[in-house]
């Protein structure tokens, strides 16, 4: 499994339109292409960014993905 934190300036296009409800529609083509290539080798992605983590990212990961 790969864990990636999507930096706002490098992973999103049209950044002025991006918000917590539509961020998945604004990933750059390069970003999506790289993800698909790595997934084709069998890797799973845990994709984090400022829109889908809470105030405490460690607790968010532990409770949402690891079941602690």
Features:
68 residues, two-stranded parallel ribbon, single chain, alpha+beta, 3 helices, 35% helix, flat
User: Helix/strand-derived class?
Assistant: alpha+beta
| Overall average residue pLDDT | 77
Query: Structurally, how many domains make up the residues?
Result: 1
Q: How would you spell out the order of helices and strands? A: EHHEH
Main sheet overview: 2 strands, parallel
Rg from Cα:
13 Å
Q: List the strand order in the largest sheet.
A: 1-2
Task: Work out the strand percent.
Answer: 5-15%
Q: What gap, in angstroms, lies between the N and C termini?
A: 18 Å
Molecular structure report:
- The structure is a single chain.
- The chain has 68 residues and is of the alpha+beta class.
- The protein has one domain.
- It is built from 3 helices and 2 strands; from the N terminus they run βααβα.
- A two-stranded parallel sheet has the order 1-2.
- The longest helix has 12 residues, at 29-40.
- The radius of gyration is 13 Å and the shape is flat.
- It starts with a strand and ends with a helix.
- The model has no long low-confidence stretch (mean pLDDT 77).
Topology of this structure?
Blueprint lengths: L1 E4 L2 H4 L17 H12 L4 E4 L8 H8 L4
Parallel strand pairs: 1-2
């Amino acid at each position: 499994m790969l864990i990636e934190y999507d930096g706002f300036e490098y992973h999103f296009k049209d950044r002025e339109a991006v918000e917590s409800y539509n961020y998945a529609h604004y990933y750059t083509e390069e970003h999506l292409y790289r993800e698909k290539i790595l997934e084709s080798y069998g890797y799973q992605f845990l994709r984090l960014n400022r829109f889908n983590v809470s105030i405490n990212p460690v607790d968010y990961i532990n409770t949402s993905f690891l079941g602690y």
